[in-house]
Predict the 3D structure of the following.
Amino acid sequence: MSPPSTTVVSFVRHAHSPYVPNAERRRGLSQEGRRAAAAITAHLAPVADIVVTSPFERARATVEGIADAAGVPLVLDDDLRERELAGEHVEDFDAAVEHLWANPTASHPGGESHAEAQERGVAAVERLVDAYPNRHVVVGTHGTLMALVFNAYDPRYGYEFWSGLSMPDVYEATFVDGELAGIVRTWVPPNEESAEA
């Protein structure tokens, strides 16, 4: 009987990025975001075997330093991109997002439903788990997509979890023989550390 295969996936929600209407793919990190990305690099470079990222600039810029520092491949996967909220700028972002969490199959004009985004996100993660047994995979992604992937495995990860995420944030998911065994947060932002002190 062969030993179980364990894949550890560190999901990295991107660092701070200034909002620019209709520039979802192109907007990069703020100065604060670049500083935080350097801290994320120090946190994950010692364990990373491969880095796979959303092609959106803010996600890629948060994790590309990990691949450089660890000397491992950086792979783009479009299925790790953020959920497309709508085809055009939405005035009341919070209300639009809350509606989608409450109605997973609903979508705004030109946008993607949570069910659709969740399906592609889970498929991307399952491909990684299959492809990298007994490896530590770093995934650069987005808050909503990360929450939707976790929600597929455990419904406790929903709107409240999403709304409490920091920028950046890191959650480690352990898969044993392809099944999720647990999720833990491995990153505490400096402002939360000082609040706990």
Remarks:
- Residues 114-131 form the longest helix (18 residues).
